[in-house]
Amino acid sequence: MSKSLFALIALFLVGCGSGVPTESKVLRSLPPPTLSMAATTQRVVNSSGGRDLEVTALLRNPTKVHIRVVNGPQCSLVVRLSPDPTGEMAGSLDGSMGCPSGLQTIDLAPGDSVVLKRVLASDTLSSFPAGTYGVNVAITTATYVQGAWAGAVVLPL
Fold first, then answer.
1. In this predicted model, what pLDDT tens digit does every residue of 95-104 receive, in sequence order?
2. Do the beta carbons of residue 145 and residue 138 sit within 8 Å?
3. What are the phi and psi torsion angles at 146 (to 5°)?
4. Does a structural domain hold residue 23?
5. 8-17, 75-84, 120-129 — most confident range
């Protein structure tokens, strides 16, 4: 009886150390869950009668886990305008568009969505030379930076 118990324990210990991935190893090897993200731009009239550019990003969590999105006074929706005479979709996402960790976040539960907006004031836009610009946006989560194309805009508005 004691030999059978010893053999069973030995088999168990060998099985545990056999290199079969544990749940935590599998989870660490999977890519982080990502948000569904769509972005748009529109011209809006400001209080002075000038034209501002409102950039909107719709984020939706299609996963089964909570995703924390950095958003607050220190780092809101990141918007980048790039000269683009074609006005066609182009990727422009890099680490510089990310927010530092430890800032205020929004918790998106599975199935939740949120709209983030940022307004680029007419005085800021007036510093750009006339022409067509591609508009890209980026958000930062706890594990990655994600971007989306928001369209093209012709300046001056």
1. 778 888 788 8
2. yes
3. -125, 140
4. no
5. 120-129
- For the chain, the residue count is 157
Residue 11 maps to a domain: no
Residue 87 amino acid letter: G
* Number of domains composing the chain: 1
SS3 per residue for 104-141: CEEEECCCCEEEEEEEECHHHHCCCCCEEEEEEEEEEE
pTM reported for the whole predicted model: 0.75
Provide the CATH number for the domain around residue 117: 2.60.40.10
Q: What is the pLDDT of residues 80-124, one digit of tens each?
A: 998 987 766 666 677 778 888 788 899 999 999 999 999 999 999
**Cβ proximity of 156 and 123 under 8 Å:** no
Residue 88 covered by a domain: yes
Tell me if 91 is assigned to some domain: yes
What is the span of the domain harbouring residue 89?
32-155
Name the one residue in this structure whose structure tokens are 């501002």.
Answer: 52
